[in-house]
Amino acid sequence: MARGDIPQDSYHLVGVSFFILGLGTLLPWNFFITAIPYFQGRLAGPNSTVVTWSTNHTGPADTFNFNNWVTLLSQLPLLLFTLLNSFLYQCIPETVRILGSLLVILLLFALTAALVKVDMTPGPFFSITMASVWFINSFCAVLQGSLFGQLGTMPSTYSSLFLSGQGLAGIFAALAMLMSMASGVDAQTSALGYFITPCVGIFVSIVCYLSLPYMELARYYLPGNRRWHKVRSWRPKLSSCSPVHRHDPAIPLAPDEKNGIPNSPQKAALTLELDPEKEPELEPEEPQKPGKPSVFIVFRKIWLTALCLVLVFTVTLSVFPAITAMVTSSTSPGKWSQFFNPICCFLLFNIMDCLGRSLTSYFLWPDQDSRLLPLLVCLRVLFIPLFMLCHVPQRSRLPTLFPQDAYFITFMMVFAVSNGYLVSLTMCLAPRQVLPHEREVAGALMTFFLALGLSCGASLSFLFKALL
Prior knowledge:
Blueprint: H1 13-34, H2 36-42, H3 60-63, H4 66-83, H5 85-91, H6 94-114, H7 122-151, H8 156-181, H9 187-211, H10 216-221, H11 295-319, H12 335-358, H13 372-379, H14 383-388, H15 405-432, H16 439-467
Helix pairs in contact: 1-7, 1-8, 1-9, 4-7, 4-16, 6-7, 6-9, 8-9, 8-12, 11-13, 11-15, 11-16, 12-15, 15-16
C-alpha cells in the first residue's frame, strides 16, 4: 500500500486526542498526592471541617498515616490488575473498559469535590477517601492498559504523544494547586476549584475518546473502529469475516525512541508499543514464527535489569510523597513557607523527573553489560536517610541534620532526575537483552516488576514514617 493511501491526521486531532487521554489517565494519582495538605487539614483535629492548604499539621493527622495509605492504595491496584491483565482484556470489550473506566473515575472525583462542602468527622471522611483512592486507581490501571493496547496498533508517534500527556499530569496538578492557593479566595472554595479541575479534565478525555471513531486516521488504525474502514482495492479477495491486517502490537519500547518512557510511577507500568513507524504489509499465508518464548528463559536474561527497576521504585515510593510531603520550610511563616511544599516537593519532582527521562533519548549509559547500573541504583538508597533528616517537624526519634531549604531542594533535584533516568534506562535496556520474539514477554515481566517495586515502596513508607 502506498504511503499516500494512509489517511492524514487532519489538524492533528488524533494526536491531540491521545495527548489529552494521556493527561487524563494520570490526573487522579497526581491530584490526590498533591492535595495531601488539604486531606491532612480535614483530618487534623476534632473540627474536621477546617480546610487548609498548609502543610504544618501535627498530632491527630499522624494517627491516620494519610500519606502512606494514599500511596499504598494507589499502587496495590496497579499490581493487582497487572496480574489480572489477560483475564480482563479477554472478557470485557475494549470500549466498555475505556469508556466505563473514564465515567467511574469522573463520578468518584465528583464525589471527592462534593465532600469539600460536607461536614464530616475524620474517621468516616478517611474511610470514604481511601475507598475512592482504591477504586479510582483500579479503574485507572484498566484504562491505561486498554489505551496502550489501542496505541499498539498505531504509529509510535501517537504513543509518544500519549506518554507526553501523562508526563504533564504531575506538573498540571502542582500548577493547579498553586493557582488555587494564590487565588485569594477562602480555603474551602479554592479546594473545591482544585478538585473540579480534574473532573473537567476527565470529561474532556471522554469527549476525545468518543470523537475518535469520527476521525479517518483513527478509523484506519484502531481495532474497534475497523468496521468503519473501507477495505481498499489493492487487497486480495477477503471474505466478510476476514480480519484486516495491521501492525503487530505489544512490542516493548525501542531504546532509541524519544519520550518513550512514561513520567510517573504509575504511567511506566504499561509502556508497550510498536517498533518505529513502518508501512503495513500483507503477511504471507502461513508465516514462519519462532517458538513460544519461555518466561523462565527471558527472566534469566533480564533478571538484573528487572531487579534494578524494582529497587528504583521501591526507594522512590518509600519516601515520595510519604516523607517528602512532611518537609516544611525552615524560614519564618510567610508566603514562601506556604508555597514551599507544592513547589519544592511536587512541582520540582515532576519537572526534574521528566528531564531525567528525556535524557535517554540522547544516550544510554551504562549499557546492559555494565555493572555500574546496579551500583547507581543501590546508591539511591542514600536518599532515604537524607530526606528523613531534613526539616520535618513531626519527629520524635531522629534529629534534623539538614534544616535549610537548600538541602531539601538539592536532594529533591538529584532524587527526581535519577529516578526518571534510571527508570527510563532500565525500560530501554530490557528489550535489548532478549531476542526480538521475546520482547513481548520481557515487556510483560518488566511491567510486573515495576508494579512490584511501586507496591514495595509504598509498604516500606509506613516503616520509615514510624522511624521519624
